[in-house]
Design a protein that fits this description.
alpha/beta, Metallo-beta-lactamase, Chain A, five-stranded mixed β-sheet, 10 helices, 14 strands, globular, binds zinc ion
């Protein structure tokens, strides 16, 4: 099957390979007055870059036809090759101002895999598991080549006729693109059909509160077709937003129930919720996901956290 699919007039999807569990990431090519806008750049490998090059060729787009590069968010599968694509095209990179502001933090996380160790240990992860998580992410160093924004966006901006919808949550400066006239939404990782986007704990933010507010915002958009970064196009945006919000509501309740028995660490909650062996990759995501929920529950007064010892314990607030 071809990696290229024409989705609508002047809109193409190019599917790029990922070597980890997600399997692929979709980037999008949009025709604009002056040439083409590329939405996302794929993972930072030669394989991904060559797949993008051949996909563009099949679409009939030369590197030099690309006038602008939008990064929906700076995760490695979306922005990993952005610097290389920027050099090849000479086109400026645009992204939300918040995502651009977080870029040094993301770069540091990838360049220094051990940076997370103290957090993971304070969440109760066993030291051997922390070692495995660090080692499994160490091979990402060197493949993450995002680019700084030449121009930053804010929610409410318009990009070549598409409305930029700020959708923080999955990433702090995530954006979607909406074409109201045609009822099209390029949803990035904000709304996916088959999987629930990972909502990861981030210091000084309430990622889950952000995400739920972004879901409400997007559910109000008129869009018959949704084009996600992972998976195939789908309809039923409102229902999917409701289902995703319901998933997080259920997870919050499951966590509160787990806490009813007494103080628990984030690691203990992961073990209760995922009753199977997790790869180091899944384990890290599960811990960050649980922490995002615990922080949300703490902010809404439903949990408290005892941070007096090295390993933090979460307690359900009496009703
Ligand atoms: Zn992502
Ligand atoms: Zn992604």
């Amino acid at each position: 099957m071809s990696a290229v699919r024409e989705l609508a007039a002047g809109l193409w999807r190019i599917r790029l390979p990922l070597h980890f569990e997600l399997n692929h990431v979709n980037v999008h090519v949009l025709r604009i007055d002056s040439g083409f806008l590329l939405v996302d750049c794929g993972y930072g490998t030669d394989e991904s870059f060559e797949a993008l090059e051949s996909g563009l060729r099949e679409t009939g787009v030369a590197w030099s036809d690309i006038r602008e590069i939008l990064i929906t968010h700076c995760h490695p599968d979306h922005a990993g090759n952005a610097e290389r694509v920027r050099e090849r095209t000479g086109a400026p990179v645009v992204m939300h101002e918040t995502e651009n502001a977080y870029l040094p933090h993301f770069r540091r996380l990838v360049a220094e895999p051990g940076l997370l160790d103290p957090w993971l240990l304070s969440w109760g992860a066993p030291p051997e598991a922390v070692d495995r998580i660090r080692d499994s992410f160490a091979d990402m160093t060197g493949t993450y080549r995002p680019a700084e924004a030449g121009r930053v966006l804010r929610g409410g901006d318009t990009l070549h006729g598409w409305a930029v919808i700020a959708t923080p949550g999955h990433a702090p400066g995530h954006v979607c693109l909406h074409d109201a006239a045609r009822g099209l939404l390029i949803s990035g990782d904000h709304v996916l059909e088959a999987i629930s986007p990972n909502i990861a704990w981030l210091a000084h933010r309430d990622a889950l509160a952000d995400y739920l507010a972004s879901l409400e915002r997007v559910a109000l958009l008129s869009a018959d077709r949704v084009y996600p970064s992972h998976g195939d196009p789908f309809g039923g945006l409102q229902a999917r937003c409701r289902a995703l919000a319901g998933h997080h509501d259920l997870r919050c309740n499951n966590i509160l129930n787990a806490l009813a028995a007494g103080g628990e660490t984030a690691q203990q909650i992961v073990e209760r919720l995922w009753r199977r062996m997790l790869s180091p990759f899944q384990h890290r995501f599960a811990l960050f996901e649980v922490m995002a929920h615990l922080a949300y529950l703490e902010n809404s007064g439903r949990t408290t956290c005892d941070r007096s010892a090295e390993v933090h314990r979460w307690i359900r607030t009496p009703a």
